Known about the structure:
Elements (H helix, E strand, L loop, with lengths): L44 H4 L1 H8 L15 H25 L7 H24 L5 H25 L4 H21 L7 H28 L9 H32 L6 H28 L2
Amino acid sequence: xxxxxxxxxxxxxxxxxGYAGFNTAPQAGGPAVGTQGNPYAQGNPYAQNPxxxxxxxxxxxxxxxxxxxxxxxxxxxxRTGTTLGTLIVTAALAWVLLPVDDAHIGRSYGIGIxxxxxxxxxxxxxxxKRKPAPALILSYAALEGVFLGVVSSVVDNRIASGxxxxxxxxxxxxxxxxxIAYRAGWIRVNRRFYGFVMAAALGFILLMAVNLLFAxxxxxxxxxxxxxxxxxxxGIVGIILGACFLALDFKQVEDGIAYGAPKEEAWLAAFGxxxxxxxxxxxxxxxxxxxxxxx
Length: 295
């Protein structure tokens, strides 16, 4: 079973909310789904296509999904561009309108943290909804942008000049690198890969939560997992996990298109990619801040 927590996982594109790309059970007349390219190329499409199952139950003849109303790569790119564009615009506005000088940093940081908490709630709501809600996703992106704008401004203006741009470049490099590696077949996203990433992410989040609790109730840097050499190490681990999540996102997009997912589910792909890119950006920003605070 796949976690539906948006921090740990992404929504898949199968009708039963399973992860279509990791369905490796043998199918009649063809190879396991998710291991041999297009699921319609061989075997019985009914046995392999989760979207065809609904037609089967209704007595419709077996057939591959129609193109009309189905998700395409263009849909994913457009929705992702809209979501990331919303985030970037609100981040830029927060940077300009919420100053982080000595007189205003408390208010600005409070607004940023409040926006982050509301964004997290919206992300969880969308995570548990059966269908994508564009308004929820764009609201999440707008509020997350406010938080990122404030945090980036704090790091850039008070700790390391140019940190925000360095983090953006690092995030773009990771995205491009994982995409190239995935398309070249250097990364094999299968059930074992998925299980490893989920276990590692769960351990990482729990460890960071414990560190946060020690910091809140014990003061200082908690257990030191987010500062100094250990902070740099765990930041690198976080970036690696983010890269793994990108591979899972790419696999889900590929499977969604191959299975004929409804067009509206391109919003889920945009939502998942945005979550992952925010994760990676924050880890880069944290590492840059630690490196410069140690100078």
